[in-house]
Design brief:
Elements (H helix, E strand, L loop, with lengths): L1 E6 L10 H10 L2 E8 L2 H13 L4 E5 L11 H13 L4 E8 L7 H18 L3 E6 L2 H11 L6 E3 L6 H9 L3 E4 L9 H9 L5 E3 L21 H12 L3 H16 L4
Parallel strand pairs: 1-2, 2-3, 3-4, 4-5, 5-6, 6-7, 7-8
Protein name: Hydrolase TatD
Keywords: Hydrolase, Metal-binding
GO molecular function, one term: metal ion binding
């Protein structure tokens, strides 16, 4: 049993064979997939996908830091209306990306703060993206956590200080298949440190395919490769990682058992 806690099934890479992708996920013993929608068109597609696979594919919505410059009061109103009219299990992905800097850093910080506030107001888990922005991510999480913050650092890159701050805030740490890459020792070291009860697994598909499929499209069934690597570095049976991460995902996102 596994759950892919972060997939982008609305991307065009899945337009032609989504049914096959989901069939393979089920064959790989995935119990659920959290589908992340990051703009209006993606939200519409996510709603249709969730309706086609009820109780199996769940939806999260938010504004990525790349698109922070597009945030207005209407953006927030649109998100709130969608969440009111549709079952949503998470808010995000949100956060900071200082690698590409596609939106001004100040605007990224503003939108990140606002979405953290919304997540707590709506009692939804925050799905947090942080790339080359650990210090500011830590500061904003600490300042905006009013005691009701819950969520996950997705696609975790291994920064020890960010890891510790997230754990202190009660957040989960989620690993993708980049944990299988030969040069990803810092990520594997993080997976050893982070308690299993605070660990999640994801694909972030269609990106970051496991090493064995590197260069190809990623898909939810490959999340098993993430669990296998975590089991390997922790010296645990795969079943232990599968059971724990599935339990963690169901708890965080309020998924049906």
């Amino acid at each position: 049993m596994f759950i892919d806690t972060h997939a982008h099934l609305t991307y065009p890479e899945f337009d032609l064979d989504l049914n096959g992708v989901i069939a393979r996920a089920k064959e790989a013993r995935l119990e659920a997939i959290v589908n992340i929608a990051l703009d209006e068109e993606a939200r519409r597609k996510a709603r249709s996908i969730a309706a086609e696979y009820p109780g199996y594919i769940f939806t999260a919505v938010g504004i990525h830091p790349h698109e922070a410059s597009t945030w207005t009061k209407q953006t927030e109103a649109d998100l709130r209306l969608f969440m009111k009219e549709n079952k949503v299990v998470g808010l995000g992905e949100m956060g900071l990306d200082y690698h590409y800097k596609l939106s001004p850093l100040e605007k990224q910080q503003e939108v990140f703060r606002r979405q953290l506030q919304m997540a707590q107001e709506l009692d939804l888990p925050a799905i947090i993206h942080s790339r080359e922005a650990a210090e500011d991510t830590i500061t904003i999480i600490r300042e905006e956590n009013k005691g009701g913050l819950k969520g996950v650092l997705h696609c975790f890159a291994g920064d020890p200080q960010l890891e510790q701050a997230a754990l202190e805030a009660g957040l989960y740490i989620s690993y993708t298949a980049n944990i299988t890459y030969p040069k990803a020792e810092i990520i594997r070291e993080s997976a050893v440190r982070v308690p299993l009860e605070r660990t999640l697994i994801e694909t972030d598909c269609p990106f970051l395919a496991p090493q064995v499929f590197r260069g190809q499209r990623n898909e939810p069934s490959y999340v098993v490769k993430v669990a296998e690597k975590i089991a390997e570095v922790k010296g645990l049976p795969l079943a232990d990682v599968a059971i724990a991460t599935t339990k963690n995902a169901r708890r965080l996102f309020g998924l049906l058992s």
